[in-house]
Amino acid sequence: MKRSNGEGTVFKNPKTCKWVAQVTYYEDGKRRRKTKTSKNRSDANSNLRKLHEEVESGFASLGSETVGKYLKSWIETVERESTRNTYLSTRNIITNHVIPIIGRKQLVKLSPMDVQKMIDKLRDNGVGGRTVQLAYCYLNTAMVRAYSFRMIRENPCSPVKKPKHSYAKANPFTVDEVKALLKYLDGHHFHNLFYTGLTTGMRPGELFGLCWENVDLDKNKIHVVQQLSNAGGYKEIKPPKTKSSIRTIGISDSTATALINQRKLLVKKGYPANEFVFYGRNGYSIGYINFQSAWRVLLKKAGIEHRGFHQVRHTFATFAINSGVPITVISETLGHCNRPTKYTLTCIVFCMCFNHQHIQERKRCPHPSQPRVPTSDGTRTVKRSGDKPFLTDCSPDSRSVPSVSVRDSANQLTTTGDGN
Questions:
Q1: Which pTM value belongs to this model?
Q2: Does 1.10.150.130 match the CATH number of domain 67-148?
Q3: Which of 206, 224, 271, 375 is the S-S candidate for 266 at Cβ 3.0 to 4.6 Å?
Q4: Residue 397: is its pLDDT beyond 60?
């Protein structure tokens, strides 16, 4: 029985002996055809129904745009909607790792198997685990957008398992290394920067972007509200990494003294004393790449194994854990987005476990079950069986810190990097 106009047709091609399902539709006033071939009539009838669904849903008009062409246009969207760092990372990984492998395929024909083969090929080529993971994540984000715009029938990345990535182990400085580094940096241009990072756990970008208006020396507090980043050779002031990174950190008297000395140093050298707290030797804001080069030289001269400045942050966390500070308080101080519980931090939680002329106090948040004895100077001496007395801040917030076992978390924080 002959079908009506628009219903399509099924016929056998005498030259190829294959069955053909064909539907005619109109787009922008032009007549178009969509065809699928199969080995038998039953499959052809099934294909005809699928073609009708495509025409009705609008997928039949999908063109032959390649994955590479689409991704290049998507990158332009990323540039408009994201930070410069995100844009550069996306552009580099998509351009160097994704497009060379699957860029020539038609967007509508990209399959989960193609995505998996891309991942396998990147691994075979020795590409780093984090780069492989980002290649998948960026491609998935692009495909989600294509699906929402009805450019593809389904997201080919959805069935593919996200590649795992093992974060590099943290390598914090030891007590002896910190002592040696502080001794070498005594009087050095970057001494106060190192000391502030060591006693606050701030990220390098947060230290570089710290302004005097966010330092309260009267109340011994630092308000972390921005960071200085380097993207493609350009310096950029932007919000901290996560919402949890916007925080207030209590500082010890020795840290406050280091900041006072830093302001005196800026005045002495003729640098602006009302903008950034820390400057490079050239009088400009600190560029991370240049600082890393200088940092490498400093460690070499001090006789210390090289590791990135970010390890100062891990050193803070390690010392705090070893001092018995609750993990939730450490997480709050570091500005982690995945901390177990939120707390408003207004007390000093860092405890230095070594002696040095620049470090004169040993402070920490006490365990609620530990006895506290008032003293005349407003602090409390806490004694535990088998422990030496130590001083701790007695602010209300420090007393409200709940009992949290940090033994299990200590092993994790001291052996793996948080990437933050």
A1: 0.63
A2: yes
A3: 271
A4: no
**CA angle at residue 379 from 347 to 346, to 5 degrees?**
10
319-348 pLDDT tens trace: 998 888 888 888 889 988 754 433 333 233
pLDDT over threshold 60, residue 411: no
One-letter amino acid of 388 = K
Residues of the chain with CATH 1.10.150.130: 67-148
The CATH topology of domain 175-415 is hpI Integrase; Chain A (1.10.443)
3-state secondary structure the chain: CCCCCCCCEEEEECCCCEEEEEEEEEECCEEEEEEEEECCHHHHHHHHHHHHHHHHHCHHHCCCCEHHHHHHHHHHHHHHHCCHHHHHHHHHHHHHHHHHHHCCCEHHHCCHHHHHHHHHHHHHCCCCHHHHHHHHHHHHHHHHHHHHCCCCCCCCCCCCCCCCCCCCCCCCCCHHHHHHHHHHHCCCCCHHHHHHHHHHCCCHHHHHCCEHHHEECCCCEEEECCEEEEECCEEEEECCCCHHHCEEEECCHHHHHHHHHHHHHHHHHCCCCCCECCCCCCCCCCCHHHHHHHHHHHHHHCCCCCCCCCHHHHHHHHHHHHCCCCHHHHHHHHCCCCCCCCCCCCCCCCCCCCCECCECCCCCCCCCCCCCEECCCCCEEECCCCCCCEEECCCHHHHCCCCCCCHHHHHHHHHCCCCC
Domain with CATH 1.10.443.10 in the chain: 175-415
Tokens representing 221? 């507090």
Question: pLDDT tens, 277-292?
Answer: 999 988 889 988 889 9
